Amino acid sequence: MSIKILTILTLLASTLSAFSQEKMVSVNGVNYHVLTSSLEQRKLRQPVLVFENGMGMGFGNWDTITDSLAKNAPVFLYDRQGVEKSDKVFQMPTPQKIAANLKSLLQELKVEPPYILVGHSMGGVYARAFAGYYPDAIAGLVFVDPADFTETKADWNQIFRTIGVSEKRIEEMLINRLYTPSKADSSHYASWSEGQVLTDLRKTDFAELSSLPIPQVPILFFVGGKLEVPKERRSKEYDHERFFEEKNSSNMLRWRRFIHSSSKGGALIYLSNSGHFVHRDDAAMVIGNIRMMINALEK
């Protein structure tokens, strides 16, 4: 066989192993923008990587890692209601509602469990919710610099006490963060409404999520250690760098406890040169660790 023919066959095999389909899928009268990859080659009971995007973001934000991962496992991506091509729905995207929507989407496409959920930022909150409402469907959990769904108001206030902010100012900042009304933004409803849902969850110390079971599966957390707030936008009232360090330390302490709550264990990976978009700043590290999870689950 000539080198030219061998090269063509190799490229063809690579293409077939990660065959992608992009389409609109209707569930309960709402059209969702969906992308799947490698589902046609799925083995029996092989976990599917299911991605939850960051706040108001489309699934294209995952493009640094999904093509590579599709060579190891089937991939399912979608845009939540109101994001990019998905229909706009003027309903609050609560964790329970988003979990139910995702379950219906997967059922409509006959993408059966088990799933490895991968959530970035607000997508981490939604991944935690889905895992809690449908724990038997989960094979693994991957949180990429998630919004902290383990945080309480007391945790948040303690960060500022540690860096020397007065009690009066702490109370003022808490009121501004959680109890100052925000005018609805119909033109950017998806990101606005998801932000409101996050605020409401923070008011209750994430009571809805903390009441849900944690699946006994491997858990990964990726944490970005680089402060990305430009110097001109940093607080003039307190040391913003120290605030960021204390917040990360506080988050990671609770995330380690979350990992330990699973009998299957996991890992917390701190990447000092990555910002909030860890999967874009250090795609190789994210891909490598998710691959290790996939390989371990297949043994």
Automatic annotation (TrEMBL):
**Where would I find the AB hydrolase-1 domain in this sequence?**
47-163
Looking at the keywords, is Cell division present? Answer: no
Q: Which GO terms describe its molecular function?
A: hydrolase activity
InterPro entries membership:
AB_hydrolase_1, AB_hydrolase_fold, AB_hydrolase_sf
Query: Where does the signal peptide begin and end?
Result: 1-20
Q: Which UniProt keywords apply?
A: Hydrolase, Signal
Question: Has the keyword Hydrolase been applied to this entry?
Answer: yes
In terms of Pfam families, this protein maps to: Abhydrolase_1
| Protein name, entry field | Alpha/beta hydrolase
Source lineage: Bacteria, Pseudomonadati, Bacteroidota, Cytophagia, Cytophagales
